[in-house]
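Record 1 of the preview.
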Amino acid sequence: MYFQGQYPGGFGKADIYRSRWINSSFAKPENLGRVINSDFHEGDVLIAPDESYLIVNTKRPKGFGKGDLFISFQKDDGSWTPLINMEKPINSSGTDYCPMLSPDGKYLFFTSTRSGNGDI
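->
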């Protein structure tokens, strides 16, 4: 399970964590580290069904708006690539957040305030 949390020892205002399912219960949450988390706020994490990539909402310098979607890919050794801004047309001058996949994995849905409201 991947989620946003605020725990002592985190890097920013909110970080992305993972808790593995082991022996019929969730293990202690693990912070995904500096490659994913920053001094800023990371949240709204989407993890691919095969865990090959994740998408998060964060506001970082050189972004397009008030919050952008960034993507990271899991490497063969289980580590993550640095977050990459998904740029336009995904991101806008508004806030782009809450990414979700269609059940078949072919479509990315997200909420955006680009038109003034939080539309999907």
